[in-house]
Design goal:
Helix content is 49%, strand content 9%. It contains nine helices and four strands; from the N terminus they run H-H-H-E-E-H-H-H-H-H-E-E-H.
Length: 219
């Protein structure tokens, strides 16, 4: 998007790092995101195993964004995981977006509970909740509120909101068309922060549920 590719950073890191540090610090402190970083080119990849490819749900959108933005997102994501979530962790039964956990582990725990109930001649009741279009319909306010509930500082939340609210999207095939503002949802322009932010959201959902200690979130 901005003409900067990974080899430039890899080969010139000794020269670039002092300048990048100043740029990243200034962006974070002021809550500013350069206009070029906001530009997102979206390409659509066909989902495997579909009988037809006639609707938008048959394709997976992939966002191509600035390499510098991705670099800063990785740094902010590391800060959230190592500093913020170290003091107020996500729900222990949450398996989505968590290192060392997986859908297989969650299913294993679920099966163990069902088998235990059956062995003791009890009733096992399972409730499965699938949120359709979660990435498309997640509100910016809910993500920022989740960050605040877990102790994220105002400066970090303000910068994340600036990314979310300023995305300008151009779709594949419209190379000469204008960039259109994103109205809702989360594009993969913030893909490195999505796991942390959505993980915070799921933790809040579980914490607000009755009997949350027995829930196993699959993601």
């Amino acid at each position: 998007m901005d003409g900067i590719f990974p080899a430039l950073q890899q080969e010139g890191w000794e020269v670039l790092i002092p300048y990048l540090v100043r740029i990243f610090r200034a962006c974070l402190v002021t809550g500013y995101v350069p206009a070029m970083w906001h530009q997102v080119k979206v390409v659509f990849i066909p989902k495997p195993g579909r009988n037809s490819y006639c609707g938008s749900e048959d394709f997976r959108p992939i966002s191509l964004t600035s390499l510098l933005l991705k670099t800063m997102e990785r740094l902010v994501d590391r800060f959230l995981r190592d500093e913020i979530l170290a003091f107020k962790q996500l729900h222990p039964n949450q398996h989505a977006y968590q290192a060392g956990k997986s859908v297989e582990i969650a299913l294993h725990q679920l099966v163990l509970r069902v088998e235990k109930a059956l062995d003791q001649q009890e009733i096992a009741l399972g409730v499965f909740h699938d949120i359709e279009g979660e990435f498309n319909n997640t509100s910016y306010d809910s993500m920022c509120a989740a960050l605040a509930r877990h102790g994220a500082d105002y400066i970090t939340i303000r910068w994340i909101r600036a990314i979310l609210e300023g995305s300008q999207i151009r779709y594949q095939g419209s190379y000469n068309g204008p960039f259109m503002p994103s109205q809702r949802g989360v594009t993969s322009s913030v893909c490195r922060l999505i796991p942390t932010k959505l993980g915070l959201l799921h933790s809040l959902k579980e914490g607000n549920s009755q009997g949350s200690s027995s829930l196993v979130y699959l993601g």
